[in-house]
Design brief:
- The complex is a heterodimer of chains A (about 300) and B (about 350).
- By secondary structure, chain A is α+β, with helices and mostly antiparallel strands.
- Chain A has helices at about 1-5, 25-40, 45-55, 110-115, 140, 165-175, 275-285; strands at about 75-85, 95-105, 145-150, 155, 185-190, 205-210, 215-225, 240, 260-265, 275, 295-300.
- Chain A folds into 2 domains: about 60-240, Structural Genomics Hypothetical 15.5 Kd Protein In mrcA-pckA Intergenic Region, Chain A; about 245-305, no CATH class.
- Helices cover about 20% and strands about 20% of the residues of chain A.
- Chain B is mainly alpha-helical.
- In chain B, about 55% of the residues lie in helices and about 5% in strands.
- Residues about 150-155, about 245-250, about 275-280, about 290-335 and about 335-345 of chain B have low confidence and may be disordered.
- The chains are: A alpha+beta (about 300), B mainly alpha (about 350).
- At the A-B interface, helix 1, helix 2, helix 3 and strand 7 of A face helix 1, helix 2, helix 3, helix 4 and helix 6 of B.
- Chain A: One of its GO terms (molecular function) is bent DNA binding.
- Chain A: It comes from Grallaria varia (variegated antpitta).
- Chain A: InterPro entries: snRNA-activating_su3.
- Chain A: Part of the SNAPc complex composed of 5 subunits: SNAPC1, SNAPC2, SNAPC3, SNAPC4 and SNAPC5. SNAPC3 interacts with SNAPC1.
Chain lengths: ~300, ~350
């Protein structure tokens, strides 16, 4: 058969590159491997790599339990890169992003719901006097408005009555003087699916929520759905790549992720200072729960919380 | 995407060998493949994540050779290469070959060509790939990623793989020549009809060269031959360049130069002799052959294909030499320009 012509006559171990290889690729690769062997003591996948690989491949080939959830043939699959809004100095060269797979027949609202941004979880307010009441209203519940901007049209989330049209300001601004922007329109997000949009690949678009938290969205790929893809509709939008952010640990125990940040704290060595819940209470409140010392405390949500 | 080091060289070497074998049979390709044990290109202790990326890049590189403007033989070779790489990859589940939507009609045309020219093995291979669901149908051929590249790498493809852009041939096709012949005959007959002597056109009416169609055909054939010769010389020069011995190269360059000069002389001689003798009434408008300037020759930018040779540090200078040596003779290759009006009335 045809396949037989390809395989070699002797079974070789794919991990070993033979010495007499005629391929330039292999010679270069062997040099790199030898160098790695000399310099690295233990050569195995670190947890970031394992995580990245798992995320990429965990959903491959999945099939749904009920046939109504099966993705049809001829469905489009879009790959979106959603960039993080934080701007750290170390991200100058390349901004970190997460990659999401979206079906063509999915609504924009489903994508909106799947974007997990740390600013959604922020809790506003100073809670040094009542630390137990802190996690009551996260920003996601308070400020529900959001919009997408694709190709001159703002898609506003109008599902809840609290949602406001954030894009109105921008449209009014662009219409007030001749700024050179064409007609900007504003429509409702929940009425549209991705198949309705006309999009450019590689062109940056915007997702804005919380009034001023802006994420750039870039579409990197559109292709037809394939037999080997995940065909369970419920799993989409599917996250396949995520940037790993290091979490800030508590200053005291250096073990737990920081949950509180204090300013102007007479008990803390630096300003601002991060504490986990346990250490925070132990340091700043006595046995009866009274406040000790002067400080301002805010609940803190670390960007790496989604790791 | 940063390229896999050495992969382009290996692929081009394999495709070059396939081109030289001058056949499109799969058995021949499989032999060449087995000689080089190409399936080992995925070997080496590579962990799963990187292996996926590597395979994707490999398939993407091979896929580029599958599309026009490459020559037919190269495209068939690329098809076989894709088949081989797809089946011998170590990833599980297998990485797919990306085909852009805009390329798909051309590929279907290519498959039709294969079937029409009875290259059934190639057509079978293509069908096998499709049955194995080896293709991703995408909007854009290249998957984007967002690292700022330190320098933009340009993909230099080998010139020999491309079909020589044959403008002259596409203009003066067989159909055109046939039509010209017909019109010419018709014209001659009209001249006979209106002249006094019914069997021969009037002497006063002979305003064009009678056999201009034949001459035109000869000239086009010569152009084609000249192009092929130039290609061969270029290929020879490339092969010679790849040998290690520099001194040998110098002497060979010289002999190449003389080879080229000979080839030129031969072509010129033939074109000189191709000029027809004008009839007596038109002797004052005898054809004069002029050398065309360098500008007239079809300008083909000679991109030096960057061959990744980390060990050879003298290659850039050698290449520079090659360029200079090639530059001067080639400028003199010119198409003979016939100054006489070759009008069709």
């Amino acid at each position: 058969s045809i396949d037989m012509l390809m395989s070699s006559d002797k079974e070789k171990d794919p991990d070993v590159i033979s010495e007499d290889s005629s391929l330039l690729t292999l010679r270069i690769r062997k040099k790199a491997l030898d160098r790695r062997e000399e310099t690295i003591i233990v050569d195995r996948a670190c947890r970031q790599e394992t995580l990245a690989y798992e995320m990429e491949s965990h959903a491959i080939g999945k099939r749904p339990d009920s046939p109504t959830d099966l993705v049809e043939e001829g469905e489009l699959l879009l790959t979106l890169n959603i960039f993080y809004p934080v701007i750290f100095q170390k991200h100058k060269d390349h901004k970190p992003y997460q990659t999401v797979l979206v079906l063509g027949t999915q609504k924009l609202t489903e994508l909106r719901d799947s974007i997990s941004c740390v600013s959604d979880l922020q809790i506003g307010g100073e809670f040094s006097n009542q630390p137990d009441q802190a996690p009551e209203h996260i920003s996601k519940d308070l400020y529900k408005s959001a919009f997408f901007y694709f190709e001159g049209i703002f898609y506003n989330d109008k599902r809840y009555p609290e949602c406001r049209d954030l894009s109105r300001t921008i449209i009014e601004w662009s219409e007030s003087h001749d700024r050179g922007y064409g007609n900007l329109q504003s429509v409702k997000m929940e009425d549209y699916v991705f198949n309705d949009l006309s999009l450019k690949i590689g062109f940056p678009y915007l997702f804005c929520h919380q009034g001023n938290c802006e994420h750039i969205i870039i579409i990197t790929d559109i292709r037809l759905i394939h037999h080997d893809d995940c065909l369970d509709r419920n799993l989409y939008p599917l996250l396949i790549k995520k940037h790993w952010l290091c979490t800030r640990k508590c200053f005291v125990c250096k073990m737990y992720t920081a949950r509180w940040v204090t300013n102007r704290d007479s008990l803390a060595p630096e300003d601002p200072c991060f504490f986990c819940d346990v250490c925070f209470r132990m340091l700043h409140y006595d046995a009866e729960g009274n406040k000790v010392g002067e400080f301002l405390a805010y609940p803190y949500v670390d960007p790496g919380i989604f790791n | 995407m940063s390229a896999v080091p050495g992969l382009q060289a290996d692929c081009e070497e394999l495709l070059g060998a396939f081109q030289r074998a001058d056949t499109v049979r799969f058995e021949r390709f499989a032999e060449l493949w087995r000689e080089r044990r190409f399936h080992t290109v995925f070997y080496g202790r590579i962990r799963a994540l990187e292996r996926n990326k590597l395979t994707k890049k490999t398939l993407e590189l091979a896929q580029q050779y599958f599309l026009p403007p490459y020559a037919f033989q190269i495209r068939v070779g690329a098809l076989y290469l894709l088949y081989g790489l797809y089946n011998t990859q170590l990833c599980q589940p297998k990485q797919k070959i990306r085909i852009a939507l805009k390329d798909w009609p051309e590929i279907q045309k290519f498959q039709q060509d294969l079937i029409d020219s009875q290259h059934y093995d190639a057509a079978y291979i293509f069908r096998a790939l499709r049955l194995a669901r080896a293709f991703h149908f995408t909007a854009m051929p290249k998957l984007l990623n967002y690292r700022t590249k330190k320098k933009i790498e340009e993909n230099e493809f080998k010139e020999e793989f491309k079909d020589p852009s044959n403008r002259v041939n596409s203009l003066i096709t067989n159909d055109v020549l046939e039509e010209l012949m017909n019109i010419h005959d018709h014209y001659q007959k009209m001249k006979c009809v209106i002249s006094a002597d019914k069997s021969q056109p009037d002497k006063a009416l002979s305003l064009i060269k009678d056999d201009f169609v034949v001459t035109l055909k000869d000239i086009t054939l010569e152009h084609q031959e000249w192009q092929q010769n130039r290609m061969k010389l270029f290929l020879n020069a490339k092969e010679i360049d790849e040998t290690e011995n520099k001194k040998q190269e110098d002497t060979l360059l010289e002999s190449e130069g003389s080879e080229r000069a000979n080839a030129l002389a031969r072509i010129k001689y033939r074109s000189y002799s191709a000029v027809a003798e004008a009839s007596k009434s038109r002797r004052h408008r005898q054809v004069k052959l002029e050398h065309s300037e360098a500008g007239k020759s079809p300008s083909r930018s000679r991109k030096t294909s960057r061959r990744p040779q980390p060990a050879r540090r003298d290659s850039p200078e050698v290449r520079g030499e090659m360029e200079v040596a090639k530059g001067t003779p080639i400028q003199h290759i010119g198409m003979p320009v016939i100054t006489e009006e070759n009008s069709d009335e």
